[in-house]
Amino acid sequence: MRVEVGKYIVLDDEVCHGRPTFKGTRVLVSDVIELLAAGLSIEEVVRDYYPSLDEKMVKDALAWAAKVIRGWRCGEVEVSA
Q: pLDDT of 19-50, one tens digit each?
């Protein structure tokens, strides 16, 4: 099953065991969030680690992460931290 949870974020059982990734990639949202938490800027993450992403995609991931923390629901799929 594939669920789009953001403009750039998907949950797809066929990709990375259903973990949140950026649409059209195998880049895990959690990996990008961890880099930001470690102090890297969005520009550094995109330039040095994931050039297939752009600033809008990373900001979408941050917005999605905030929704997860609040216990947001996506259709029939409950998303929880």
A: 999 999 999 999 999 999 999 999 999 999 99
Q: For position 17, which CATH number holds?
A: 1.10.10.10
Give the separation between CA 75 and CA 10, rounded to whole angstroms.
13
User: From the DSSP assignment, how many helices (H) and strands (E) are in the chain?
Assistant: 3, 5
Name the residue with higher pLDDT: 67 or 41. 41
Q: Residues of 42-72 as b/e, b for ≥16 C-beta within 10 angstroms?
A: beebbeeebeebeeebbebbeebbeeeeeee
In which domain, by residue range, is 31 found?
2-78
